[in-house]
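pasting for ref
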Amino acid sequence: MKLWRSRQGRAVLLPTLTGVLAVAGTIIQAGAPAAADPPSDLPLILDVSTPHDGPCDGPLHGTTAVYLPPGVPAHAEVEWRILGGGQPIRTGITVVQNDVMTVGFDIRRDELPPDGLLRVDARARVPGGDVTGYGKPWSFRVNTECRPLHVVSVGDSVLWGQGLDRDRTFADLFTQALGTRTGRTAQLHDYTTSGATLDAPAQHVDGCPRGDDATLDVFCQLEQAAAEAAANGYRIDLVLMDGCLNDLDPFFGIPVGVTPGTQDLAAAVRRECGGVGADAANPAADLPYFSGAKLGYGGRGMREAMQAAHELPGAPKVLVGDYFHGYDAGRVPQGLTQRWSEFVRLSSEVFRQAAADANAAAGETFAAAADGLFTQDAVPTGDRRPAMNPLGDEAISLRQLACAQPGLPQCLTVPVAAAADADGARKYADAFLLNPRVNEWFGGGAALGDGFTASSHSTTPGTPVVFDAAKAGSAIRQYDWYFGDGSHETTTETTIAHTYNGRGPNLPRLVVTDMTGHRSLFELDRPVMVD
């Protein structure tokens, strides 16, 4: 276990054109709207930052960035307010001097609503007393809980950065960052094991195996986490999970095609990751290559694992980590990378649907599927090493881990493993922190609405799909599009067309960077299917 005691908040990213710092004031009643109002979503709250100590150590200190477009009348003012429970907690008025203005605020801890949910919005006041309506708001949640934050990680350790130092794996870095964001001490309880499967019925005949050398499946890892939490009297806040990694051996068995039953990859993923019709006996148990699948092929899938995780002490939230896309490094046959990429897309959809089903059954949103936004072209030119892969060059390092006996025919093309990429691991963890559900659960600027739309959710290879990010708001400096097929593109325009060539499902995501430097992630409501 690792223990971090962090009291540093996320950095306040403000542009050089920031205006005056306003102080709390009193709302002044105004008359009818002006004849030429700005668009209805303006003034726009771009970002809210609550750095450093947070409410656990006294008042909540923060700043909010307010945007108005160029050309507003001289001597115009912005009237802003912070609401909790529907009631104003802080209000103020500041003169418009720049396109983006920063407003400072302090809120006593006893003024915060019990759920910590705050809303910031603003309206424009023009000479003569006319006002606009309140523009598009920014909702965020602040920490009102001061007990230590407990995070559990389960699954196979390779996805979390196996080979990295203990304080630089994904689970460690994610826990550190989450503690920083909430201003709480953050403790990681790591139960991941190399070779772990999602569900191994053979392990449960006489109960879960014991001993340091046991390779526990996800359900046994959760059982161990529950026992230790109960014995030590703590509640678990979040479970990080990966699953079905070795049930199908996607790093090797699927691309090479030696795992029985994977010829129909979509059916195999539904069976082993979704738990739909999985057999207790593993047909790959006797194949002569490394694979934790020797103990896999259970009947329980990701939905059941999510539900079991939510039953731990404290009813924790559950974040399922998906795999990163493969890419052609010039050393791996194209057919292998195509199969790998297809597996990533299929498993991502199974995880997303499992979370949706588990949330619907529970009547609450406690589970989410996420990934590190790794793409085939993460580094657009020159060095093709994935920028967000915690293992460095996955074409080398993952195969090195899977090929304990280099003499096997299937392992002959595996080069010497590259050094683990610690910087990539941190970027990978940071990308998970962008997930809107994490912001909703633990505080931070929440992405509002869907963010973008697609011209079609069903297409054919070679037919462009147009994406429109108008819903993401105004004053966006950069759009980073992740199309779900391993490709990524950065633009400064709100619309973009993308052509899918391989089969779906492909779940597009968009990361927008506003003028303050704040990033927000949006997901399409459902995948784009390619037939």
